[in-house]
Amino acid sequence: MAEPGARTTAFDPPLEPRGWTTAEQDDRSPEVQVEDVSEPVGSKTDKPRPARVIAIANQKGGVGKSTTAVNLGASLAEAGERVLVVDLDPQGNASTGLGIDHSARERTTYDVLTAGIHPWEAIVETAIAGLWALPSIIDLAGAEIELVSQFAREARLSKALEAIKDDFDFVLLDCPPSIGLLTVNALTAADEVIVPIQCEYYALEGLGQLLKNVRLVQQNVNPRLRLTGILLTMFDARTKLSDQVVSEVRAYFGPRVYESVIPRSVRLSEAPGYGQPITQYDPSSKGAVAYRRLAEEVRAKPADEGVDLAKLMGEESFGPGPAPAPGAREGGEAEQEVSGEGPEGTGDVPSLTAEPTAMTVPRWAREDGPESKPDEATVGFGTDGGSDEGGAS
After folding, report:
1. What is the distance between the alpha carbons of residues 121 and 133, in angstroms, rounded to a whole number?
2. Cα within 13 Å of Cα(28), Cβ side
3. In the predicted model, is pLDDT for residue 359 greater than 80?
4. Distance, CA of 354 to CA of 284 (rounded, Å)
5. pTM of the model
6. Homologous superfamily, domain 48-307
7. What is the DSSP track for 74-89?
């Protein structure tokens, strides 16, 4: 294992062919290969599958995006997966959390996006076996301005990652706290989205707008994008508010919410100061246990089981909608099936077993002010309603 922060290049890739190890150096022969029967879980002995590219996104700051990128990546690597964490936040918190010193960030995501260098020229090896990082520096804040005049500027990251997808099992994209060009690049390159939500009121307010923007990216740029799940973070068991937020989110999003809940933990806050993920800093802590469970959930849920946002938002297709369902209202909006009691016993919530034609969201997720119904509002997306404000450009 190289020293933390050691640079790898396109001419010196650190990865051996999957499922095989070469013979001893002195006896190496192009015709001789020895199967590695002790290959860890997650490695492949046949043709490698492309990496699962997962964007960790939320335009709200301080909800645990970088913490999740670092610790989920470390937990996946601990389980035997080959993982790359791409730091797209100019603050570079994920890079710091992985112990990458600023002096080792000679080439970064800024150079990949603006100069078009090969990603392996910027990727650095971390202290965790199986975990690599594409670091970030503050210069990345100027990338959005520099890319304004570039052709297909929203696809720069996607094009760069195509060259290295076969080298990894997972690529985690740590997005900045905004819906700007950097986040749009991440959503264009990703197959899946994980949305961390802090267990507090303010963190929930913009969830509807975030899903709307993700849907706009899916409609216009990346139709394969799926919402893999919603992750509840900074849960404080001492407060009733955290319990209420968890209950409300699970009631409205049901199985789309991960079972693993990340607790508010002093250890999780301390770990970045030592340049270590929580699985190394305190392997037995509640935070480490929670992220290992999350890694198991992410590995167990295939990419194609993510939620199709078209269905989540009540759209059946990108084109003209299907014929109205029996019992549809005059305006073409079908009746929403409502169950008598939610999974958390919170009262009437949308049924999670039927495919709705419109997504009803709680009051905290509303974008438009008070509606006729005091506790819920129906939000339109795409061409069927809603403004394009705040969407992808």
Report:
1. 11
2. 6
3. no
4. 41
5. 0.70
6. P-loop containing nucleotide triphosphate hydrolases (3.40.50.300)
7. HHHHHTT--EEEEE--
